[in-house]
């Protein structure tokens, strides 16, 4: 716990002085009783007092003073709070390898279901966009808080040839930049008009084929795009989706379409993002759930003085009430 105005804690010295004064007063009262030699007369003029609970009013009031002093110091604690401003581009591979059935019913169908779940799980303040890619990349939905538009676009995904992973990252970055400029130009100046933080979530099952399987470092390649994303402070979190045993039917023959973990991991490493693997729809949903938690919430220091104020007020009422009940007077 930290405090926004810690100098108020000096008030605890007053609390300590009150405790010392009360103890000194009790000791003096005991001494005066011992000096009173006529015990019969003492019983008549000073009837027997309640037991230990006679100290309850003073204890409650002193504790209330301590609690209210802490409340005035502005206690703060770390807490998860929903992000109100952030941009996420969800990027989904729709190359022909996504028709493989190693993930039931198919890789694409499982990816669509998990992506819609991801859209629903994100906190309302997140702007979510959608990019699909095969031989080229297309921005299907620009960043928006309208989840229905994103889910409708996910349902409309169609398979196509090739895998242009780098183009997908570049298209996502361009969409984020355009959205950030529109946000910054919508109002005057200040932190609320600064570009919101952004992230790309890339799900793919195979190695880049455009501009070529060995061309990730080319100007439009995946690794080049990942480096530029790092420079733009847009981490790319990658999900390698599928198994090593996936196959598809091409021209009457079975072609193996093993998942490519290595390139997905390198894209994440180069961009400063995270790398995940998923071999089933359930695993993919769990990955998306983890990402939605990370993206949708942030840890901030928040004011926690309200419980202290409430507790101090309650103790104050207890102290005053018990004083009137036990001694028929205020403590």
Molecular structure report:
Strand 4 (126-133) and strand 5 form a beta hairpin. By secondary structure, this protein is α/β, with parallel strands linked by helices. The chain has helices at residues 11-35, 39-45, 56-72, 107-121, 147-155, 165-184, 222-231, 261-271, 281-296, 305-327, and strands at residues 2-3, 75-82, 86-93, 126-133, 137-144, 198-204, 236-241, 247-250, 253-256, 275-278, 297-303. The protein starts with a strand and ends with a helix. It has a 6-stranded mixed beta sheet, sandwiched between helices. It has a 3-stranded antiparallel beta sheet with strand order 1-2-11. A two-stranded antiparallel ribbon has the order 8-9. It folds into 2 domains: 2-74 and 304-327, no CATH class; 81-301, von Willebrand factor, type A domain (Rossmann fold).
CATH class of the largest domain: Alpha Beta
CATH superfamily of the largest domain: von Willebrand factor, type A domain
H and E order: EHHHEEHEEHHEHEEEHEHEH
DSSP summary, beta strand count: 11
Q: What would the principal axes of the Cα set say about the shape?
A: elongated
Major sheet size, sense and barrel closure: 6 strands, mixed
Taken as a percent bin, the fraction of beta residues is: 15-25%
In short:
This protein has helices at 11-35, 39-45, 56-72, 107-121, 147-155, 165-184, 222-231, 261-271, 281-296, 305-327, and strands spanning 2-3, 75-82, 86-93, 126-133, 137-144, 198-204, 236-241, 247-250, 253-256, 275-278, 297-303.
Topology:
Layout: E1 2-3, H1 11-35, H2 39-45, H3 56-72, E2 75-82, E3 86-93, H4 107-121, E4 126-133, E5 137-144, H5 147-155, H6 165-184, E6 198-204, H7 222-231, E7 236-241, E8 247-250, E9 253-256, H8 261-271, E10 275-278, H9 281-296, E11 297-303, H10 305-327
Parallel strand pairs: 3-4, 3-6, 6-7, 7-10
Antiparallel strand pairs: 1-2, 2-11, 4-5, 8-9
């Amino acid at each position: 716990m930290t405090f926004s105005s810690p100098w108020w804690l000096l008030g605890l010295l007053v609390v300590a002085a009150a405790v010392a004064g009360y103890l000194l007063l009790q000791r003096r009262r005991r001494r005066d009783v011992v000096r009173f030699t006529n015990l019969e007369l003492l019983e008549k003029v000073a009837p027997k007092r309640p037991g230990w609970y006679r100290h309850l009013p003073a204890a409650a009031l002193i504790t209330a003073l301590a609690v209210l002093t802490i409340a005035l110091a502005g206690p703060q604690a770390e807490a998860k709070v929903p992000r109100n401003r952030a941009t996420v581009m969800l990027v989904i591979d729709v190359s022909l390898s996504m028709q493989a059935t190693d993930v039931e019913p198919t890789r694409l169908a499982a990816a669509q279901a998990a992506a819609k779940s991801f859209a629903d799980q994100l906190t309302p303040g997140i702007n979510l966009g959608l990019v699909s890619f095969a031989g080229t990349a297309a921005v299907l939905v620009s960043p928006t808080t309208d989840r229905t538009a994103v889910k409708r676009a996910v349902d409309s995904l169609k398979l196509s040839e090739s895998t242009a992973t780098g183009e997908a990252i570049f298209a996502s970055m361009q969409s984020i930049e355009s959205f950030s400029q529109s946000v910054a130009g919508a109002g005057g100046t200040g932190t609320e008009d600064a570009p919101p933080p952004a992230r790309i979530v890339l799900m793919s099952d195979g190695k880049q084929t455009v501009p070529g399987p060995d061309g990730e470092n080319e100007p439009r390649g995946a690794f080049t795009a990942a480096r530029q994303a790092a420079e733009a402070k847009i981490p790319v979190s990658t999900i390698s989706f599928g198994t090593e045993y996936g196959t598809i039917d091409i021209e009457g023959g079975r072609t193996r379409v093993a998942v490519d973990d290595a390139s997905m991991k390198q894209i994440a490493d180069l961009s400063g993002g995270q790398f995940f693997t998923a071999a089933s729809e359930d695993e993919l949903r769990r990955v998306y759930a983890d990402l939605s938690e990370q993206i949708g919430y942030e840890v901030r220091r928040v004011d926690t003085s309200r419980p202290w104020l409430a507790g101090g007020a309650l103790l104050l009422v207890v102290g005053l009430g018990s004083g009137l009940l036990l001694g028929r007077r205020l403590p």
